[in-house]
Amino acid sequence: MSRKLFGTDGVRGVANAKLSPRLAFELGQAAGRLLLETDAPRRAVLGSDTRRSGPMLAAALASGLCSVGIDVVSLGIAPTPAIAFVARTGDFGLGGIVSASHNPAPDNGIKFVGHEGTKLADETELRIEHLMQADTEPPTGAGVGCIVEDRSGLDAYLEMLRSIVPEGLHGMRIAVDCAHGAAYELGPQVLQLLGADLVVCGASPDGMNINAEGGATKPQTIQDLTKAAGCAIGVAFDGDADRAIFSDEMGRLINGDRTMGIWAAHQQGRGQFAPAVVVGTVMSNGGFEKFLNSRGIALERTQVGDKYVSQRLRDTGARIGGEQSGHIIFPAHGPTGDGLVTMLELFRAVESEGRPASTFYDDYEPWPQLMINLGVDGTAGWNEKPRIASALVRGEEDLQGHGRLVVRPSGTQPVIRVMVEADSYDLRDRVAESIVDAMRQDLAASVHGRVDLTYALGD
Fold first, then answer.
1. Which residues contact residue 310 at a Cβ distance below 8 angstroms, ignoring those fewer than 6 apart?
2. Known catalytic membership, residue 67
3. What is the pLDDT of residues 68-93, one digit of tens each?
4. What is the largest CA-CA distance in the chain?
5. Phi, psi at residue 7, to the nearest 5°?
6. Whose CA is closest to 244, among 343, 324, 157?
7. What is the pTM of this model?
8. What is the pairing mode between strands 253-254 and 298-302?
C-alpha cells in the first residue's frame, strides 16, 4: 500500500488549509502511538523554521503527542538537522520538525526522525497513517505528556559544528544568505566563533519572507553578494537549513555535485577517501560522474530524496552522498542532510587546499541538463496517458548512449518534474519539448519553472 499523506519529505501543504492544526494534532497522536509500540524513550523533541504558521502547527503537533502520553521538549526555531542531532544525542524516541523547507511561506510541513536521527522509512510513515485511525483509550492525570521549552540541546549542536574546523577560519571573508530561515542565528554564529569575517543577508525573518528574497533556491542572491562584497566564498541555506549551495569569488554557483566533487578530491588527495564511492541520485550530472570515474571513484545512484541517499551510504560505507540541490550527508556527522555541516566541510577543504574557490570550478564540464516543472491537477496515472507514454519511449530511444531521462511526480507539490540530460544541447531540448508537449495535451499541464541545470542546482 502507498502512503496518502506523506510525500518524499514528510507531509506538506498550505498551512491552515490542507495542513490544518487538526491534521497536525492527529499526526502527533499517531506518531506518539507508534513510539509507544517501541522500547525507545517516550519523549519527543520538536522544532520549526521561521514561518508564521510554525508555532500554531508545532503546538498542535505537541498536543497530539502529549494526548497519548509522550513528553515533548520544544527547541523553538531550529534548523532541521539540529533537531535531528538533538533527537539522536539526547534521551528522545522521536524528533518532530515543522517546516516546508524551500517552499514559500504560506506552505508548511511536518516530518519525523527516529531516535537515531534518521528520517522514517516509507513503511513507518505508512504505519503512522494507519495509526491515525486507531481508537485507543486516552491517558489521564499523570499519564498525560507534558511540554517544556528547552534550547540547551542546540548548544551541543553548535559545539559539534565548531569541532569540524578545529583550526578555525580566521580572516576568511564569507558571504552568508540565511534565506530568513531556520539558520538565521546559528549559521552566522558558528562562523563568527571560528573567526570568519562575514557579510550576511537574509537574517531578518518576519514569518512571511522565508525563501522569498534568496536562499539556496534563489542562488543569484548569494552569487551577486559574494562577488560584490569581495568575499572568498559564499553560502546560501534553504528555509530549514538542511541544504547549502555556494558561490565562488567570481559569483559562479557551486551546486551539490560540485561540492561533493571538491570534498571527495580533497580527501582523496590526503589519502583519506575509502571506500572510493560517492552516493548521488538519478539527478546527479553525467559530467560529475565522469569526473569521479577519472579519479577512480564510483558514483552510486539512488532515487531522489535524502532518506534514500542515507540508506545507500549505510549500505556502501561511503563517506559522502547527496543531491545537486545541496542536500549533502556526511555520515561521520549524522545520517541526514545538514547545510551547516556541509558549509564547514567545504570551507575547511577549500582553506586546506590553499587556493581560491574559483580554481575548483573547471575540474569538470557538466553535461547539458534541463529541468522543467509542470503544474498539474493531479499526478495519479500520469504516465499511462497515450501521448505521454509514447513520448517517454521515444525520448529514451533518442537518448540511448547519449544521455538520461528522469520524469517523476514531485513528492511535495502537484508538479511533474522532467529532467533531460544529453551530450548536446540540441538533443536535450528536443527530447524535453516533445515530452512537455505531450503532457500539455494529455494533462493540460502548464510550465511552472524551467531551469538549465548545466551550471545550476537541482531540485
1. 118, 119, 321, 329, 335, 336
2. no
3. 999 999 999 999 999 999 999 999 99
4. 69
5. -105, -150
6. 343
7. 0.89
8. unpaired
Radius of gyration of the chain (CA): 22
Strands 415-422 and 403-409: antiparallel
* Catalytic-labelled residue, pool 101, 284, 325, 410: 101
**Bridge partner residues of 48 (DSSP):** 77, 98
- What is the sign of the dihedral through the CA atoms of 260, 221, 375 and 18? positive
One-letter amino acid at 368 equals P
Beta strands 197-201 and 147-149 are unpaired
Sequence-separated (6 or more) residues with CB below 8 Å from residue 379: 409, 410, 414, 416
| Cβ atoms of residues 216 and 236 within 8 Å | yes
Residue type (1 letter), 31? A
Cα 122 from Cα 307, distance rounded (Å): 9
Task: State how far the Cα of 280 lies from the Cα of 285, in Å rounded to an integer.
Answer: 9
Give all domains of the chain, ordered by start, each with its CATH number.
Answer: 11-151 (3.40.120.10), 156-363 (3.40.120.10), 369-452 (3.30.310.50)
Note the pLDDT tens digit of each residue in 223-265. Answer: 999 999 999 999 999 999 999 999 999 999 999 999 999 999 9
Residue 14, classed as helix, strand or coil, is strand
- The cell for 321 is 552522498
Q: Which residues pair with 155 in a beta bridge?
A: none
Residue 238's nearest CA partner among 401, 49, 453 is: 49
